[in-house]
Automatic annotation (TrEMBL):
It comes from Micromonospora sonneratiae. This is Transposase. It holds the Pfam family DUF4096. Residues 11-63 form the Insertion element IS402-like domain. InterPro entries: IS402-like_dom (IPR025161).
């Protein structure tokens, strides 16, 4: 289920279009990704912006 933009640190669609091409593509033959890359980047930005620890991330972010 895709997350809606809920936090001020979440990327806008325009920002994601700039960042997505910079991420390395998944390796062929590897296991499928568990979580969308955008959700991971949003979680990283949330931690950087708020200064919370990984364990304090809201539940709607990936683990």
């Amino acid at each position: 289920m895709p997350r809606r933009r809920r936090y001020p640190s979440d990327l806008t669609n325009a920002q994601w279009r700039h960042i997505a091409p910079l991420l390395p593509p998944p390796r062929p033959g590897g296991r499928p990704e568990k979580h969308p890359r955008r959700a991971i980047v949003d979680a990283i930005l949330y931690v950087v912006r708020t200064g919370c620890s990984w364990r304090q991330l809201p539940i709607d972010f990936p683990p």
